[in-house]
């Protein structure tokens, strides 16, 4: 299960700020229904991702998304928070003497590379 969760997080992070619809995630990973449910249960426990539909952000404890089927019907999008995306991109803060503007430019470039990888 750890490998599946890791693959799911990689897919989510690679989509950047736009996130990944739960339906797309599951089709990309080609999983059985039981595994999808188990994956969903585990994703809900990860504090560095958030769940949203349009501009509405759902808490992982929200009853309307706790069930995989309900979340899929909502067309829920899973978005990695900045900290998780930074780790995925290999950006571990800008304490190396890089100013914030340069850090943002580097991060944007890395996000574009990650997104292009999926095309």
Describe the protein's topology:
Elements: H1 2-14, E1 20-21, H2 22-29, H3 33-43, E2 49-53, E3 56-58, H4 63-66, H5 68-73, E4 77-80, H6 82-89, H7 100-117
Antiparallel strand pairs: 1-4, 2-3, 2-4
In short:
This is General transcription factor 3C polypeptide 1 winged-helix domain-containing protein. The protein starts with a helix and ends with a helix.
Report on the architecture of this protein.
With 119 residues, this protein is α+β, with helices and mostly antiparallel strands. The protein has one domain: Orthogonal Bundle (Arc Repressor Mutant, subunit A). The chain has seven helices and four strands; from the N terminus they run αβααββααβαα. It is globular and about 45 Å long. The model has no long low-confidence stretch (mean pLDDT 86). This is General transcription factor 3C polypeptide 1 winged-helix domain-containing protein. GO terms for molecular function: DNA binding. It comes from Corchorus olitorius.
Taking pLDDT < 50 over at least 5 consecutive residues as the criterion, the unreliable ranges are none
The CATH topology comes to Arc Repressor Mutant, subunit A
* SSE sequence, one letter per element: HEHHEEHHEHH
Shape-level CATH architecture: Orthogonal Bundle
E-strand count: 4
Strand content: 5-15%
Compute the CA-based radius of gyration: 15 Å
Percent helix, as a range, is 55-70%
Q: How many helical stretches?
A: 7
> What separation lies between the terminal Cα atoms?
26 Å
**Mean residue pLDDT:** 86
Structural class: alpha+beta
CATH classification, class level:
Mainly Alpha
